[in-house]
Write a structure and sequence with these properties.
Layout: H1 2-20, H2 31-52, H3 62-72, H4 80-85, H5 87-102, H6 112-122, H7 146-158, H8 162-186, H9 192-204, H10 213-216, H11 223-232, H12 247-253, H13 275-281, H14 286-306, H15 313-340, H16 345-361, H17 368-392, E1 397-400, H18 409-432, H19 436-457, E2 458-461, H20 471-494, H21 499-513, H22 516-525, H23 538-541, H24 544-555, E3 560-562, H25 575-580, H26 589-595, H27 600-613, H28 620-626, E4 629-634, H29 636-641, H30 645-653, E5 657-665, E6 668-675
């Protein structure tokens, strides 16, 4: 039955998304751009409205939206040609869905639980900013989580859990990314095969290290080797370059002894996360939304650059109208970056300004009025969000990069050579060709060079220390720049009339696609015991004791849930609450404290919870009732952490909390204390 439900839910979602692509009509000439633009617009408008008043549950709405979608698709629903033209969206969606279907767990890996927490904040449809599910008494107004709001809209429309919403939202986002890259490429490249190569390299590829991974990190044909290579492509500089398995590689990249890695003067940790890495990892994190704005902007720019030649006066009027709307949308992507991935806001602004500058150099109108108008509309829609976020977000200083923090040259070249290759080709082509695409390619290469220089000369100081000074800046800026430069530069070269340019441009595309090898290796060998459990909670429910605790909390009345704390982050704390749709007393304290400017009470409360679960706080019941805690969980995690504390906790909580045994295993009872 679960498989039937999964198939029906996915079909329901895809019908809605297919209908969105048809709402622009033939005048837009590109269903993929229309779909991306409408998803962006609808989410932004709903985000604005719900800051004024929450819309609550939306499950009553989907029968009407389904009827409307079927009406829009009434002539295409049985047309195989129509669905064939949907493949640029469906195939990336299917690739992401395959990963999420096989490995659906939303657990302590990376930022999975953090992302679930972001989505869970928006699931109830409360007036925004919503009540914070990790910090009782506060509103969630300290993070740029527009993409998580979008995932929650899916869940609220189709009456899904936060886990389902997050996994499906991830797949939709990857589908939109792939289709927008296709949209951009199709404006210059006629060949379906070349377009597919560009999309595959952008969505599933790695960086310049991808073809070197089997040579630098040798190992048996086991899943551990695949995991090492998947991570090494992302965390090479300062981390995996220090554990290369071959001597020539250690000499080439200057690997140091392990005792130097954590020293203040040790190798700098400078990561680059490609889209393919996110698909493997399963993190539904803000860089993905930054990619969406990037490729939406590039698809709009490609549409504006190539245009649709009008045949009649009416066609000319329609073209002007379509271009005006696209310019407004392009301008709106700049402020939208603040709510999706604030780190790339300056890069998104430079992208739009760079295109306007290009128009001026060609003697064309830069349409500043339309762009500024779109930016102002975007700011107006985001104003309710910004009025709170700007007061509570962290202020970061821009500083010059110290000499010790610069990227080592060999590592930098190993990562960036595909982009450098394409840049040089664009400049060489420009000297021998004066076509519009050749001139534009040279301009784009110049812009990419400028952004690379900026990323090596300044950084945003987020209080990272020593080897982590540039960590977040490089993580966000490089990760945004690499796929955009790869897709746009390769497209402009493949569009060249001479065949030589196409094959030369294919070299870096094929090279980064070598990142597919460890992905396929991982898919072939990694066990998948929880395949198909798209709620993401099977890592909990596979244990009978934990399953009963989770099932009880799901049907219990709303109330604060207390769970034990191991460290500061990357632990199962709040997993039961989030998967059950309940608010938590504590989330990951180090994350929450950082977002709120390190207030003492967050870390102090976390220490108190640790004492409670050690049985070392005689007045535990008084402390919990004062904070209106309704449920205290004793699960497998608490038992494994400190089994001796159960008896003490039972005595301390008895005056105010009723013990509800929900299961037992190996002579140990598991359950929940519920406030009397």
């Amino acid at each position: 039955m679960s498989l039937i439900f999964t198939v029906l839910t996915v079909l329901l979602l895809l019908v809605h998304l297919a209908a969105l692509g048809q709402l622009g009509g033939a005048r837009w000439s590109d269903r993929h751009l229309v779909r991306g633009a409408l998803v962006f617009t609808v989410v932004l408008c709903c985000f604005f409205v719900e800051h004024l008043f929450g819309l609550g549950s939306l499950r009553w709405l989907w029968p009407f939206t389904l009827a409307g979608s079927l009406f829009v698709l009434r002539r295409q629903i049985a047309d195989t040609a129509f669905w064939r033209d949907e493949l640029p969206f469906l195939l990336p969606f299917a690739w992401a869905f395959a990963w999420r279907f096989l490995y659906p767990n939303i657990d302590v890996t990376a930022e999975h639980l953090t992302d679930l927490y972001f989505v869970r904040n928006y699931m109830d449809g409360a007036t925004l900013p919503p009540p914070d599910q990790w910090l009782p008494g506060y509103r969630f107004d300290v993070y740029y989580a527009l993409m998580h709001y979008a995932a929650a809209l899916i869940g609220r429309l189709f009456h899904l859990s936060a886990g389902w919403s997050m996994n499906l939202g991830f797949c939709v986002l990857i589908g939109l990314l792939g289709s927008l890259v296709w949209s951009m490429a199709s404006r210059w490249v006629a060949s379906t095969g070349w377009r597919a190569l560009i999309v595959a390299a952008t969505v599933a590829g790695g960086n310049g290290l991808a073809p070197l991974l089997p040579l630098l990190f040798k190992g048996p044909l086991e899943v551990g080797t695949a995991i090492t290579r998947l991570w090494a492509n992302t965390r090479f500089t300062g981390v995996f370059d220090q554990s290369i398995s071959v001597e020539w590689g250690r000499r080439l990249f200057g690997s140091v002894s392990p005792d130097l890695l954590q020293q203040p003067w040790g190798p700098r940790d400078l990561p680059l996360e490609n889209i393919g890495y996110f698909i493997y990892l399963g993190d539904y994190h803000p860089p993905l939304a930054g990619f969406l704005l990037l490729f939406l902007a590039l698809a709009i720019i490609a549409r504006l650059e190539t245009g649709t030649p009008p045949r009649t006066r009416e066609d000319a009027h329609c073209e002007d109208s379509a271009c005006g709307k696209l310019l407004l949308l392009l301008g709106a992507t700049v402020p939208a970056a603040i709510a999706t991935n604030s780190w790339v806001f300056p890069l998104q602004a430079l992208l739009v300004l760079g295109w306007a500058g290009w128009r001026l150099t060609q003697g064309k109108s830069a349409s500043f009025g339309w762009l500024i108008g779109g930016g102002l509309i975007g700011l107006a829609l985001l104003y309710p969000f910004l009025s709170r976020f700007s007061l509570n977000s962290l202020a970061l200083a821009i500083r010059p990069v110290p000499g010790i923090d610069h990227t080592p040259l060999v590592q930098w070249l190993a990562i960036w050579w595909p982009i450098l290759w394409l840049m040089v080709l664009c400049w060489i082509r420009r000297f021998g060709e004066d076509s519009p695409s050749a001139r534009f390619g040279a301009w784009v290469a110049l812009g990419v060079m400028l952004m690379l220089v900026i990323s090596e000369t300044i950084y945003a100081d987020d209080n990272g220390a020593d080897r982590y000074n540039r960590f977040n800046t490089v993580l966000k800026w490089w990760s945004w720049l690499f796929p955009g430069a790869l897709a746009l530069l390769s497209t402009l070269l493949i569009a060249a009339p001479r065949r030589a340019w196409r094959w030369l441009a294919a070299v870096p595309l094929v090279a980064v696609l070598c990142y597919l090898l460890p992905q396929l290796h991982y898919l072939a060998q990694q066990p998948r015991p929880h395949a198909g459990k798209l709620a993401g909670d099977a890592w909990l429910t596979s244990d009978p004791a934990n399953r009963r605790v989770l099932e009880y909390l799901r049907v219990a009345p709303k109330g604060l849930v207390l769970e034990g704390i191991d460290g500061g982050a990357y632990m199962p704390t709040s997993a039961f609450a989030l998967h059950a749709g309940q608010p938590a007393v504590n989330g990951w304290p180090s994350h929450v404290a950082q977002w709120h400017g390190e207030p003492m009470h967050i870390l102090r409360d976390a220490d108190t919870v640790r004492q409670i679960y050690q049985g070392a706080m005689p007045n535990a019941a008084e402390w919990l009732t004062a904070r209106n805690v309704r449920y205290v969980v004793w699960s497998r995690f608490e038992q494994n952490r400190n089994p001796a504390a159960f008896g003490q906790l039972q005595q301390q909580l008895a005056p105010s909390y009723l013990w509800r045994p929900l299961g037992d295993a190996d002579g140990v009872v598991y359950g929940v204390w519920e406030r009397r």
